[in-house]
From TrEMBL:
An annotated Gene Ontology molecular function: sequence-specific DNA binding
UniProt entry keywords in alphabetical sequence: DNA-binding, Transcription, Transcription regulation
Top-rank taxon, per record: Bacteria
Protein name: AraC-type DNA-binding protein
InterPro entries, sorted: Homeodomain-like_sf (IPR009057), HTH_AraC (IPR018060), MarA-like (IPR050959), Reg_factor_effector_dom_sf (IPR011256)
Pfam families: HTH_18
Span of domain HTH araC/xylS-type: 15-113
SMART domains: HTH_ARAC
Amino acid sequence: MKVASGTMETVNFIEKFIIYIEDHLRERIDYNEALYDLGVEPKSFITIFTSLVGMTPYEYQHKRRMTEVAYELYEGHRRLIDIAKYYGYRNVDEFKDLYKNTMGISPYETERYIRQLDLLERITFEIVPVDSPKYPTKTVYVGSFRIVGITQYFSINDYSREEKLSMLKQLEKDGVIDELLNYNTGQVKGIIMHERVVKDEMELMIGVSSIDATPFNETYTESSDFTIFEGTGKAGPLIEDIYQYIFRRWRFKMNRDLNCNFSIEVIKSPFDVDYSDSKLQVWQSLE
């Protein structure tokens, strides 16, 4: 969030107050008392805070707390009851209702829908650019294009990101990837992983962009503006890291909404999912 240099003192104080909130994220904060202790008149400060941050301090704390809860649920290292208690919620049923009212889904659906959640990373104010992007990007409009390949459907309740990599490995083992590459005559070069929800199921297609007649299944992508993120590494961890970068950092610098109704990843080369230096792209659709 960029601000004029004349507001530097105000911005610095708001940054410090955000740090205060982050340090007390799991606690009940009396904002009037906290601000009086800091020598600030609460009403005027909260007005300025809200205009710059886009929400009140209380709303910021609540959204950040729910975001951290979502990440904990996604990572799955602790039980729901332990997470609820850690963040100060003693009644688990009330916590479940609060989470659903905030996130729009139950805690148990978090792993499945983490990419669609409206999460909030800690807000900072960029006076000048201080770092380069973690992954090189380009934003382009791409019209609908045809993908041919192998399609598999999963129950949404059972689907996880591991299913995609498992399917990719099996297709490699069976020689299907090499066969698909013979038909890679479309505008996008590489192995494409395309997933979307169709009639309450997760449709996963692994294939190539092609204009040829083939013995494989076919589907068409949506036309969209895409920001394309590029990275090098082992496919599984790299895909996960790029999405975490998109949803934990990059999207908060964007002024456009993200379209999460489908996903596209492209392995450019080599096509071995276990290779440590695969070149890979994640295509993030923009609204």
